[in-house]
Amino acid sequence: MAGFEGRIALVTGAGSGIGRAAALRLARDGAIVVATDVRGDAARETALLAGSGAVALELDVRDPASWERVLASLPAAPLGVLVNGAGVTGLGAGAGAAAQDPETLSLETLRAVLAVNLEGVVLGCRYAIRAMRERGGSIVNVSSRAGSIGVPGAVAYGASKAAVGSVTRSVALHCAGAGLAVRCNAVVPGAIDTPMWGALLGDGPDRAERAARVGAEVPLGRMGTAEEVAEAIAWLASDGAAYVTGTEIVVDGGMAAGPVARRG
Ligand SMILES: NC(=O)c1ccc[n+]([C@@H]2O[C@H](COP(=O)([O-])OP(=O)(O)OC[C@H]3O[C@@H](n4cnc5c(N)ncnc54)[C@H](O)[C@@H]3O)[C@@H](O)[C@H]2O)c1
Questions:
Q1: Binding site membership of 163 for ligand 1 (Cβ less than 6 Å)
Q2: In degrees rounded to 5, what are phi and psi of residue 35?
Q3: Which CATH number goes with the domain that contains 197?
Q4: What does pTM read for this prediction?
């Protein structure tokens, strides 16, 4: 699908996983990609992979000053697309990791997760609306299945993603009410095999086996790929979705439909 020619597509969290796949996909469709990430090196790698005039900028989505710096250094073209892809789970074995069940979740972890996944998305939408006010555009937020179900071991993450659904609907109605040609939608990925799963799958020789076990719970029988989510992002971002705003596309291999009964 072409159609982004001459327009900037700014992607947050573009240094990895779904954000990177979205950046590459939008570049292929003709967008001038601005790959951003709190990890500048990772964003630069994505821009190199994207080619075709893509640029990389360091952006910490939690920080308004960081957003303002990035918006002030965009290439000279209208911002047509914002993909709010940056996200953290707060889970894992690494530094800063902490349990997230309702009894043990610390306020620090809750605030750290909300700062990226909720505040970062609200800030992104605010700055995008400003930049798109004259020429219109499309905002795509990356929510999660965890925002639509109870996730007792990931209270902060689930709450942050449920909030993304609400922010998406509010931004869509705000823009429509103001007569702006700015649409806002979300994708709702299920279990997508990206580095975000490192904490649960590890990176040892049994990673594939663990991923297969996660995939066995999915009606389509496997984890999804970042590229499969990027397909939905690209469509929501495109003019093909001109009549679509305030909604979500679920990309979860059928999980939202219910458990699957396998017959042979
Ligand atoms: N992988 C899944 O199964 C899955 C499922 C549902 C939703 N999601 C969502 O998809 C999005 C992308 O996740 P992913 O799986 O590609 O994970 P990932 O860890 O591969 O990528 C996330 C990226 O966000 C960046 N990031 C983290 N904090 C940031 C900040 N403050 N500012 C800017 N960038 C920051 C990271 O550096 C990283 O490059 C996230 O919002 C995630 O919650 C993922």
A1: no
A2: -85, 120
A3: 3.40.50.720
A4: 0.97
